[in-house]
């Protein structure tokens, strides 16, 4: 017989030898012991639950719970089933799995409404379902935006008829609830407007209204939106320039001084006016012949009898030297004409000034000092030397492209940073970690104490009672009775024994 069989045989023999009351007590003791061990193990191994989703619709909550059940993942429901908690070490993994399966979908009804159709559906119900599907799909699309927490779309689709010359226009309204700490800019609002108008036939952008949950109108007229879009674009360009310059300053200084030792702010004055200038330059010294024309004329013939017509013919005889002196003598006349057209060199230049050029930069940089040990061994703040500050100023000038003629201003100061809030936050985090650790360790310590007390106060006395025979019980009872006697009774018994 092996030791295991011998052990169970011995236990069986001892159990058979027990009285009826002892058998009942043994069964109760075994049941209570096993139940206590299981309860303690379950309590110790209960995972810490963390929020998975909150404010869920009934459809989403049901789908997520079914998914968790299929994966045998423990969960906890609260807030009337709208909040689901799962083990903390599986939260992110479960969210990724749910997202891959399209959960949560939201309470909006999309095109899946046509997956379940009935033969008896009327034309009115079909049109109504189509409108609901459009509204639901648009709501889901709008909720994919990073800043949008919830969206609801209402459509007014005009009824199509053949007897109206002018087609009625549809309308749409969108209600937006943004996430905590986030807002929608004009560009995003216009994107929502054009999304709705482009998705529904018969609805133009002018007939789409976007409001927030507080009733504020976010969309406006096209002219207003165009001006606001330009202003927003200019502001965003300005911020990009400033942030890029701040990044350059921090990249150069923090590598040398340490993370969080530098604070830089840049204000850029940009010129967004668009100027076009046309310049024409003429160079007379570089003239070239464009065209040339030469004409020659020669006339040969006799002079009329009356002489030459004109003042010379009126002179007295002998004074007309310009004539031939003889009437009817032949004469010759030559005529040359030359015409040249010159082309002057002309340079035409169109100068366009780009928008967003920098007019002026204002830069402010704060540099923290250092903590060094003094003679007493305590840490104290020490400011940086003027030589160091001059060196850092030159670095900042190089980082932002300092231009003195432009009127740029750069100020670099050594200021002690207030780290009390950060230190308090770190202390709070450390305290929370210690509390969590103490709670985890405390569970095991409490479990151990409970087991020890339960064994010494309940299990051990019951085991002793079960394993003790009837004769031993009588002796124990007598000993207990002896211990329970008073001093007077003991003295009286001793006196009786002495007299005997």
UniProtKB/TrEMBL annotation:
InterPro entries given in the database record: AMP-bd_C_sf (IPR045851), Flag_M-ring_C (IPR013556), FlgMring_FliF (IPR000067), FliF_N_dom (IPR006182), YscJ/FliF (IPR043427)
Topology in the lipid bilayer: Multi-pass membrane protein
Any matching Pfam family: YscJ_FliF
One GO CC term on file: plasma membrane
Residues covered by region (Disordered): 276-338, 476-500
GO molecular-function terms, A-Z: cytoskeletal motor activity
Major localization listed first in the record, in broad terms: other
Listed transmembrane segments: 24-44, 437-456
Subcellular location: Bacterial flagellum basal body; Cell membrane
GO BP term, example: bacterial-type flagellum-dependent cell motility
Keywords associated with the record: Bacterial flagellum, Cell membrane, Membrane, Transmembrane, Transmembrane helix
Flagellar M-ring C-terminal domain ranges (all copies): 253-417
Domain Flagellar M-ring N-terminal: 45-219
Family in the record: Belongs to the FliF family.
Name of protein: Flagellar M-ring protein FliF
């Amino acid at each position: 017989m092996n030791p295991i069989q011998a052990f169970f045989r011995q236990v069986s023999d001892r159990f058979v030898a027990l009285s009826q009351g002892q058998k009942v007590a043994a069964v109760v003791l075994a049941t209570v012991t096993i139940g206590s061990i299981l309860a303690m193990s379950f309590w110790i191994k209960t995972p810490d639950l963390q929020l998975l989703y909150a404010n869920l619709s009934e459809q989403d909550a049901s789908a997520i719970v079914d998914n968790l059940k299929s994966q045998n993942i423990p969960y906890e429901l609260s807030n009337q089933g709208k909040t689901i908690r799962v083990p903390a070490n599986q939260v992110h993994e479960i969210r990724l799995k749910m997202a891959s399966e399209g959960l949560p979908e939201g309470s909006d009804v999309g095109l899946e409404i046509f997956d379940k159709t009935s033969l008896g559906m009327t034309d009115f119900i079909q049109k109504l379902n189509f409108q609901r599907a459009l509204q639901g799909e648009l709501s889901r699309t709008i909720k994919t935006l990073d800043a949008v927490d919830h969206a609801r779309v209402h459509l007014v689709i005009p009824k199509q008829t053949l007897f109206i010359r002018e087609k009625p226009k549809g309308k749409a309204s969108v209600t937006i609830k943004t996430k905590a700490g986030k807002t929608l800019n004009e560009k995003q609002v216009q994107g929502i407007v054009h999304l709705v108008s482009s998705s529904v036939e018969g609805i133009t952008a002018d007939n789409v209204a976007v409001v927030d949950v507080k009733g504020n109108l976010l969309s406006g007229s096209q002219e207003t939106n165009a001006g606001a879009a330009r202003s927003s674009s200019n502001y965003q360009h300005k911020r990009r320039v400033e942030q890029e310059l701040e990044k350059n300053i921090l990249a150069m200084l923090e590598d040398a001084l340490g993370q969080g030792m530098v604070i830089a702010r840049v204000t850029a004055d940009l010129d967004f006016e668009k100027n076009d200038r046309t310049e024409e330059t003429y160079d007379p010294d570089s003239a070239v012949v464009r065209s040339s024309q030469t004409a020659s004329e020669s006339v040969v013939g006799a002079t009329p009898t009356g002489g030459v017509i004109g003042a010379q013919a009126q002179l007295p005889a002998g004074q007309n030297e310009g004539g031939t002196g003889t009437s009817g003598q032949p004469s010759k006349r030559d005529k040359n004409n030359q015409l040249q057209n010159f082309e002057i060199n002309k340079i035409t230049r169109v100068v366009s000034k780009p928008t967003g050029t920098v007019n002026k930069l204002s830069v402010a940089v704060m540099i923290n000092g250092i903590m060094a040990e003094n003679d007493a061994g305590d840490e104290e703040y020490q400011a940086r030397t003027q030589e160091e500050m001059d060196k850092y100023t030159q670095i900042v000038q190089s980082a932002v492209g300092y231009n003195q003629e432009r009127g740029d201003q750069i100020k670099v100061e050594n200021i002690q940073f207030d780290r009390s809030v950060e230190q308090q936050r770190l202390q709070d985090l450390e305290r929370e970690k210690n509390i969590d650790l103490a709670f985890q360790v405390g569970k095991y310590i409490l479990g151990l104490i409970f087991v020890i007390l339960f064994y010494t106060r309940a299990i051990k006395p019951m085991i002793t009672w079960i394993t003790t025979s009837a004769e031993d019980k009588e002796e124990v009872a007598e000993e207990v009775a002896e211990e329970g006697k008073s001093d007077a009774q003991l003295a009286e018994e001793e006196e009786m024994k002495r007299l005997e």
